[in-house]
Amino acid sequence: MRNVTKDNITDVFKGYLVDDMPPRTREIMAALVQHLHDFARETNLTHDEWRQGIEFLEGCAAIESEDRHEFVLASDVLGLSSLVDMLHSRDDATSSSVLGPFHVSGAPALDVGGDMKRNFGGPVLLAEGVIKDTDGNPIAGAEIDIWQTAPNGLYASQDEEQDTFSFHGLMNVGDDGRYAFTTVKPVEYTVPTDGPVGAILDACGRHPWRPSHLHYIVKAPGYRTLVTEIFPDDDPYLDQDTVFGVRNDLVMTYHTKQAADFPEGMALSGKVTESFLSVKFDVVLAKE
Fold first, then answer.
1. Cβ burial, residue 186 (10 Å; 0-12/13-18/19+)
2. Topology given in CATH for the domain delimited by 90-189+206-285
3. What is the pLDDT of residues 6-16, one digit of tens each?
4. Which of 15, 117, 151, 239 has a CA-to-CA distance to 270 between 20 and 30 Å?
5. pLDDT score at 101
6. Residues 193/208, Cβ–Cβ less than 8 Å
7. Domain map (residue ranges) of the chain
8. H/E element holding 72?
């Protein structure tokens, strides 16, 4: 078409979409371009501003690696990751929350009652709960993938001092659906700010802090996979998470207990000599 104008270019684009393309692809591409064009028209986007946007994408690509997912981080701080999570969360199941850019696949097996703290300093945290269906029945054989930061606020993939699977574990629960493990109390931390995402935070006057949390991916045959995080209710950044990951039902409470109250059947049983933290958090999965 020769007579393309600022007013009809969106419709011209939609006219280029072929008839036999998948309907969902057509819907997404048409809506994407509609909103992109409307954004440019609404803001009267300049060439310099457009170039800055392109440079942002190029900057993300330049530092993207197996251990650094800047595009995911950008989606996180813009709230898109959390919005997609919330669009597809079930009201009758545990809320989903952001995967984040630091998950490492292939974590080593962690027995029920196993320990991820190892020789790291910091308070011992005993985390346990039951993986249930929406009727409250335990889900036998469910799998839970667990990961978190070290006490220095870094994930294993960020820190050369940690091994690849530091603070990562993959647990298969028994017939009772119970999971349990010990670790170190997670700490709040900043998302990476040395790349293009950091420039966005600076430009918006936003801080880079996330509240402390444990990451879970929970799977079971016949159930929807859940990607989520759980947060302590006393964290200073609970109400200002820079990636918008907190949900009411994901907030839990740490309870301080004496060493004598540490339970049997754990890898650290008989080895805890000081007070420790304890939290119980049940996970509810929805059927597919």
1. buried
2. Protocatechuate 3,4-Dioxygenase, subunit A (2.60.130)
3. 999 999 999 99
4. 151
5. 82
6. yes
7. 1-45, 90-189+206-285
8. helix 70-77
